[in-house]
């Protein structure tokens, strides 16, 4: 299954996307479950991560579409 996926998608794009989703997901869990607060720099950082994933996957043409 993994090898079939890597035939179509570049590993850097896949790894970067999953890493970014993990970072944003853990931050969201921290806020929802543990009541942590995210300051403005944290929000900006999370938005930059989301924007980076968007640009790599959609705008740059690096992923297979």
Give an account of the 3D structure.
InterPro entries: EmrE-like (IPR037185), Small_drug/metabolite_transptr (IPR000390), Small_multidrug_res (IPR045324). This is Small Multidrug Resistance (SMR) protein. GO terms for molecular function: transmembrane transporter activity. Keywords: Cell membrane, Membrane, Transmembrane, Transmembrane helix, Transport. The protein is mainly α. It has one domain. It has helices at 2-8, 11-34, 40-59. The radius of gyration is 14 Å and the shape is elongated. The chain starts with a helix and ends in a 6-residue tail after the last helix. 0% of the residues are buried. The mean pLDDT is 87.
What is the compact description of this entry?
It is a multi-pass membrane protein. The protein has 65 residues and is mainly alpha-helical.
Instruction: Work out the helicity level.
Output: over 70%
Class from secondary-structure proportions: mainly alpha
Strand content: under 5%
Give the tally of structural domains.
1
Low-confidence stretches: none
What is the residue-mean pLDDT, rounded to a whole number?
87
Helix run count = 3
The sequence of SSEs as H and E is HHH
Radius of gyration: 14 Å
* N- and C-termini, Cα separation: 19 Å
Number of strands: 0
Question: What is the global morphology?
Answer: elongated
Biggest sheet layout: none
Transmembrane segments: 12-34, 40-59
Membrane topology: Multi-pass membrane protein
GO cellular component, one term: plasma membrane
Pfam family, one: Multi_Drug_Res
């Amino acid at each position: 299954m993994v090898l079939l996926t890597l035939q179509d998608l570049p590993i850097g794009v896949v790894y970067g996307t999953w890493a970014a989703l993990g970072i944003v997901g853990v931050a969201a869990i921290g806020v929802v479950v543990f009541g942590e607060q995210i300051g403005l720099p944290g929000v900006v950082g999370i938005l930059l991560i989301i924007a980076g994933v968007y640009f790599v996957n959609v705008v740059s043409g690096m992923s297979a579409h």
